[in-house]
Design brief:
Blueprint: H1 3-28, E1 37-48, E2 54-65, E3 70-83, E4 86-101, E5 106-117, E6 122-138, E7 142-157, E8 164-178, E9 183-192, E10 202-212, E11 217-228, E12 238-249
Antiparallel strand pairs: 1-2, 1-12, 2-3, 3-4, 4-5, 5-6, 6-7, 7-8, 8-9, 9-10, 10-11, 11-12
Length: about 250
């Protein structure tokens, strides 16, 4: 059994057993008001040696201010993988979205993000977005928010591919299913149409299962798909990332 398989097994055990073990303590805690700011930091690391040498490192963070009526969400992600000393994957993402509540269910948003992934064919993908969010489900077990908006994309591609920029759109959803007081299933799906060239659209999907061990520590299993209908150069049209990480909340 490989080290990666052991890591997945350990994470699954923690997800299955960690949450229920602390559920009683969590239920006994007095309900506290929702904080104005909240954030999380996730870390994943894998290192093997012997017949093969593999090093994988992952980091993601987020911080959020709930709309009162203005809110802000900042997210970042870094993934890197080396196989026998050869770099096989490296991706960096940083984004921020400001929100303005327009009532209990509607929000206006505007955001900026930057992404670097030379293995996918671009040095820098800059995206500006604006639109509205509708909260279709607001709990207590199911939460669903739908996004619709317009985007501007400026993509600095790896040579010899030419750089591109275009006006596009955004359709998305963010779903959370609270399986219990300590465990949740999360899904984020986003579609990016290109208004200049309809066949050049992108789709991203992030699925995660997260279980809290206590108020500040959780384990998380994640699976991300990034699909580009017209890949750049010789790049594949689909990239996937599987993660097992420890999440610190603050």
């Amino acid at each position: 059994m490989t080290m990666k398989t052991w890591l997945w097994c350990l994470a699954l055990v923690l997800v299955a057993a960690g949450g229920p073990a602390f559920a009683q303590d969590a239920a006994e805690e007095e309900a506290a008001p929702e904080p104005l700011w909240k954030g999380s930091l996730g870390l994943a690391y894998l290192d093997t040696s012997g017949n093969s040498e593999t090093t994988t490192f992952g980091l993601d963070f987020s911080t959020e201010r709930r709309p009162t009526p203005w809110g802000l969400t900042v997210t970042g992600r870094f993934n890197r993988n080396e196989d026998d000393g050869v770099l096989t994957a490296e991706r960096l993402f940083l984004g921020a979205r400001a929100r303005r509540a327009l009532g209990e269910r509607w929000e206006f948003f505007g955001g900026l993000s930057a992404e670097k992934d030379e293995f996918a064919g671009f040095d820098l993908l800059f995206l500006a977005e604006t639109g509205v969010t509708y909260k279709a489900l607001v709990g207590p077990r199911h939460f669903l928010a739908l996004d619709a908006g317009v985007t501007w994309t400026d993509e600095d591609r790896v040579e010899p591919e030419p750089d591109v920029n275009y006006l596009g759109g955004l359709l998305g959803l963010a779903y959370e299913w609270k399986l219990s007081d300590t465990a949740s299933l999360l899904e984020t799906l986003r579609l990016f149409p290109n208004f200049d060239e309809s066949s050049d659209w992108r789709l991203t999907s992030e699925t995660a299962l997260q279980a809290s061990v206590n108020s500040w520590l959780a384990v998380r299993l994640g699976y991300e798909i990034r699909y580009r209908n017209e890949p750049i150069g010789d790049s594949d049209d689909t990239d996937t990332t599987s993660t097992a990480s420890v999440v610190f909340s603050f």
